[in-house]
Amino acid sequence: TWHVQKEIQFRGKNWLLRMEPKPKLYSATTVTANLSLLFFGLLVSIGLGLLVYSLIRRVDTCRFALEEREFVEESLVKSEERFRQVVDSTGDWVWEMNASGLYIYSSHNIENILGYTSAEVIGRHFYDFFLPEDYERQKKQIFEIFGRKEPFRHFVSRNVHKDGHTVILDTTGVPLTGIRGELIGYRGCDRDITARVRAEEESKKNIERLKKITEGVVHAMALAVEMKDPYTAGHQRRVAQLACVIAKEMGLTEKKIEGIRIAA
């Protein structure tokens, strides 16, 4: 054991200052405890560092996810805008309906076709616009297609315009199904073919008139020939009838049979 002592004067008095080490100040237990504390502090520091690093990574991941989400949302908005522009430029009425035939989306072109705005159409059924005399028949046909979950093309229907006149639409649609295969609706488009149908009807009328005129000319020529020779009167008509019977037995089309009749 070592010690140090020194005499000093303080405030007019003599003092003896004695210094010596504390017993077992640097014992093995004390050293072990200090090392354990140091090791624990080191572990805590490492843990806190890893936690901070993890938090920084999470913040970076969240920021990246948010930036990516904003980019996707912006892209979707631009894509939707381009889709609307394309739809509006085609002139067709693009729509979407649920499984009960209720419109849940309608493009603005509906106003040019049936006179209604998109807001007036959404929430109404497709069959609400059919002509009264076609209502039940066309409604049944569409729901039969819905039941088979089949796509359809060129379904022609007569519809009532907002001002009351008839509009003929050519409809195309594809089914929308859920995860389990259940029908959730249809998406498609309608095209106004009123002018085309009217032109086709007028063309058919013109062809029918021309056909009647041609038959009249042929009949007049046949009568003129028969008047020259009374012994062959009615011969052409009998030949035509016989030729038509033979053509039917041969299985020719109605158009070819009609041509044979005129020729005979």
From TrEMBL:
Query: Which residues does the UniProt record annotate as the domain HD-GYP?
Result: 210-264
Classification via CDD domains: PAS (cd00130)
List the InterPro entries.
HD_GYP_dom, PAC, PAS, PAS-assoc_C, PAS-like_dom_sf, PAS_fold_3, Sensor_kinase/Photoreceptor
Keywords assigned: Kinase, Membrane, Phosphoprotein, Transferase, Transmembrane, Transmembrane helix
Using the UniProt record, name the top-level EC class of this enzyme in a single word.
transferase
PROSITE patterns linked: HD_GYP (PS51832), PAC (PS50113), PAS (PS50112)
Protein name in UniProt:
histidine kinase
Q: Which organism is it from?
A: marine sediment metagenome
